[in-house]
Amino acid sequence: MIPAGHTAVMASRREPPDSLDYFPTPPWATRALILDVLPALGDALPAIASAADPASGEGHMVEVLREFYPDVRASDVFDYGRGYDVADFLDARKSFAPVDLLATNPPFNAALAFVLRGLTVAKVVAILVRTSWIEGERRYSELFRERPPTLYAQFVERVPMVKGRWDPAASTATAYAWIVWVRDAAPRPLFLIPPGRKRALTRPDDVRRFAVAAETPLFADEV
Ligand SMILES: C[S@@+](CC[C@H](N)C(=O)[O-])C[C@H]1O[C@@H](n2cnc3c(N)ncnc32)[C@H](O)[C@@H]1O
Fold it and tell me: Which residue's alpha carbon is nearest to atom 11 within ligand 1?
């Protein structure tokens, strides 16, 4: 486990297989969930005391959740050497203790299964996915038709994610959104996560805690 604010991701790295789709989340994008997206739910949002990321990788999302919530669980099917539980979230034979908020950046091709299982264990399920994930007949028939998201929160800024590490200087042509389900809550209007959140929600010690190349500048104008 990486204590919040403590030196991070780098010492004991283990490379996962490509099939696990390991793309760590920039820390600011998780802070945008907590500080922008969840508050947009208004009185539909239940009290959050516990949270979990069941695909926690090296902890880029779970350690940010720990900045805000007292009880945060981390697990992943692959052992990245971070001390988190090793468990396949999609193995229905294994129980998963109920949690208030399940937040994750799931592997793209398994995200539907993550949401379907997440809805059985969490009051609030929030996934960070490429915007194109909202398309697709299977996702429509197995999820969206009967259980439309409570909130679709589109990032106006790009959220650059690269394979295997967080690179604060990366760029991307891919758009991302947080999609949130709250048990028994009616859908809300589209929410746009405004520009400027990368700069506002990136903390001075994020590079030290989360980036592989610790000398990488946080913003292009710091080069
Ligand atoms: C896109 S990465 C996200 C990592 C981390 N949540 C983050 O935001 O930085 C997807 C993660 O899902 C994990 N994963 C893939 N299949 C899984 C499964 N069936 N159960 C649990 N974790 C899984 C991978 O090992 C990888 O760490």
Answer: 55
User: Ligand 1: which of 56, 93, 174 to mutate, judged by most atoms within 8 Å of the beta carbon?
Assistant: 56
- Beta strands per DSSP E along the chain: 50-53, 71-76, 85-86, 99-104, 122-130, 151-155, 176-182, 191-193
Q: Where are the domains of the chain?
A: 18-222
CATH 3.40.50.150 fits 18-222, yes or no: yes
Residue-level pLDDT, tens digit, the chain, 223 residues: 333 433 344 445 677 877 789 999 999 999 999 999 999 999 999 999 999 999 999 999 999 999 999 999 999 999 999 999 999 999 999 999 999 999 999 999 999 999 999 999 999 999 999 999 999 999 999 999 999 999 999 999 999 999 999 999 999 999 999 999 999 999 999 999 999 999 999 999 999 999 974 444 455 454 3
Which residues have C-beta atoms less than 6 Å from ligand 1?
16, 20-25, 53-57, 60-61, 76-78, 88-90, 104-105, 107, 110
| For ligand 1, atom 17: residue with the closest CA | 77
Which contacts qualify for 40-43: CB closer than 8 Å, 24 or more apart? 40/151, 40/153, 40/188, 40/191, 41/150, 41/151, 41/180, 41/182, 41/185, 41/188, 42/188
The residue whose CB lies within 8 Å of the most ligand 1 atoms, and thus the one to mutate among 76, 88, 105, 130, is 76
